Amino acid sequence: MPKPDALSETLLNRLLYKGILPRYAFPTDVATFHVFDKVNSTRFRPAFRFTPSQGLPVALSQYAPGKEVWVSGKRFTSGAIYSPFGEELYRAWEGRRLYFECDRCHYAVTVERKNAELYEGSNCPGCGEMSGFGNSRRWMRPPGFAHPVFTDENTSPDDQPPKSYATRAKLTAPTPVDESKWTIINEHLRFHHMWDHLLVTNRGPRREGYNYCTRCGVISPTVANKGIDAAGAHKKPYPDDHDDTCPGERAAKGIV
Length: 256
Description:
Layout: H1 11-17, E1 30-36, E2 48-50, E3 53-55, H2 56-62, E4 68-71, E5 74-77, E6 80-81, H3 86-94, E7 97-101, E8 108-111, H4 116-119, E9 137-139, E10 144-147, E11 170-171, E12 183-186, E13 189-191, E14 198-199, E15 210-213, E16 219-221, E17 234-235, E18 245-246, E19 251-255
Parallel strand pairs: 1-10
Antiparallel strand pairs: 1-2, 1-3, 4-5, 6-10, 7-8, 7-9, 11-14, 12-13, 15-16, 15-19, 17-18
């Protein structure tokens, strides 16, 4: 993954990336699971009963769409990508990238959308597998998650979508082919070092991704989807005393 754009990231993230602030025991990339307070929420000022948080790599599994989330002895269901700040949801989708993964070694990378043609069907940079990179998936970084306001907190386990888990953290740097980048210890051992990102992605049940409504944030697994049809009209996942219906029409299918 390329270095972060200094103009579009926060000062805290930049200081952490440059190693000026320590990452150990320092919460970064925190994602919150929102449970709305139906009584006290309004269209422009949502209120919440619970707002537990996890670091994003953990949240990608614990708060993944379709997951049961237990809070204060009550069971809720993750069914929306959400942030109390509407611009965050907009920026998350506008900043989406393309995700490629090798079927052989599972080397993975995200790239800017404008560079799609350079990677579609290309050889894997990690293991060299011919045409190891197949078709891309749209990839976004979720700002947070939510239990849809219209969903009962005690849904039946039989109605739950298939579960999914995030991948292991993967180094996004390929094996260097330039011999000058290696330091030789002896005839059996050599090494190289680098500073690059680790990538964690939830690809959805059976690796088929999620269906996501880019209008309101409703999201559900693509596989065996018994939940909301993100492509059709559905209720908004957040309180809206003016109009609680989303027309859909802007659904993205199979995102990761």
